[in-house]
Amino acid sequence: MKIARPSALTVLTIALLILLPALAVLQYRWVGQVSEAERDRMERNLRTAAFQFRGAFDGEIIRAVNGLRVDATTVQEGAWDRYADRYTSWFDAAEHPGIVAGIFLVDERQGALRLRGWNATSHEFEEIGWPAELANWRPRFEQELAGFGTRQQPGGRLPFPEDDALVATPLVNAPPRPGERGERTPPVFGFTVVQWDMGYIRNQFLPALNESHFTNSDGDRYRVAVVDGQDPSRVIYQSDPSAPVDAARPDASEALFGFNPFGNRGGPGRGDGRRNFAGFRVPGSAVPGSTVPGSGVPGSGRGRDFARSALVVQHDGGSVDAAVARVRRRNLAIGFGVLMLLTVSVGLLTVSSRRAQRLARQQLEFVAGVSHELRTPVAVIRSAAENLAQGVVGSGDRVKQYGQAIETEARRLGDMVERVLQYAGIASGVGLTSRMPLAPADIIDRAIDAAMHATGGAQVERTIAADLPHVVGDQAALRSAVENLISNAVKYGGPDRWVGVRAERGGTRRQPEVLITVEDHGPGIPGEELPQIFGAFYRGQNAVGGQIQGNGLGLALVQQIVSAHGGRVTVVTRPGAGSAFTIHLPVQS
After folding, report:
1. Which of 93, 96, 292, 527 has the most CB atoms within 10 Å of its CB?
2. Hey, where are the domains in the chain?
3. How much is the pTM?
């Protein structure tokens, strides 16, 4: 027994169906790896941007503190021109000189504290009264002065209020050189106090840094805020007031005002940049011996456990993890959508190929059937013509009989060709020539005459309801559809050759119809064949087994004609009791 080998299409389809789940698994893993790489990239870029933001911020602060410090020699000599050059050099080099609101010099005269403010116009420190922002500092400066008088070093703990935007650095007295002899110049007491312009820092300096480091960084959008280092709920600056940053869960954070020009600052990636503020470890203050107000710790060069303020950054989507998860879901949806589309395409390709194979097989069967159908009338016509031509037939009755045979077979041949051409014309959309109002009774009568002339000997029972409305359509096409049903009923109707034709009203009030039913007393149609009987070139087992003449186009042609007129065809069959085909046509509106 020969085993049928699967076709190449079947093998290809099975291979693709096995490959697609494997592709889905690989796609899922690949998207996961890409997402992890994207998360690492975003976090690395974000830490770098935050570190650079801190560097730019602290660098500007450091340059201001170091550039505006007053040294002891300048105070002793009153060389304000020298300090004016220092101030001008700082002002010209600074990117944001507006961060400084004022410069003060606290020193002593005749044992009493004196406060002077820098006048950039007159280029000298002028004695002024103690403003409110410095009044809270005065008791501590007096303690420092008293300690300085007993040869104690300045720079003890200064309990300055945390809200004061001030930095105080002591005057630098030159240390004695090794081996130096003679009397040294006595040390000078004093502090340089730099006051920050918080309005400028909040409204111009910080927005400029945000624009430079976080706007359109690799296409990612971030919310940026600067908050109090000890109280994160106190916001100093935020890039988008309508989208606050959750300081408890930042994607990146850096301590600000935590500068130390004489030591290593660390860099991005050192430690976890997303810790809460209680875990910050920030380098010491600007200069050894200086004090950053609000820290409560003198500048000893050692680290302190909290920062005056902190930068916190959060992805616009809530967090980097949430943004990466959204992108991953989107990529998975796109990837699986493509795989699903590929799966559907494979399925449609398989169905189309199967349908094409089935159609090709039906076409071959049609060619074989038509060839057989054409061979019979052609052979009869040829044989009769030869006998007539050779004078084999001599009597008038025999000549008449041969003439009738030739006429019958020629009509049969013409009907066959006409049916094929009509099917091809309707399938291409050009088979219906004209539309006009038609009486159903006229369509039925013409169809019965044509069918009986071709088949003959059949008993037709005609029942037409009175006052049927007209239908609109092509008269020849509708006649051909009813004629095909009558011819089929004669061929498959059984030995009694009975055909019933009736017309009646149907449908609904909104969509009234005319129903034309053709029924027979034949053996009926098997249930498994009902879905296929309207297919082109299809012939049932009874027709093939009984060697009933036909080409499988009759019912297909009926359905195409009726569908072209906006109607439909239904069938009711009972095994051993016959079949009834009904044409539903919309009435003339």
Report:
1. 292
2. 1-171+188-318, 432-589
3. 0.56
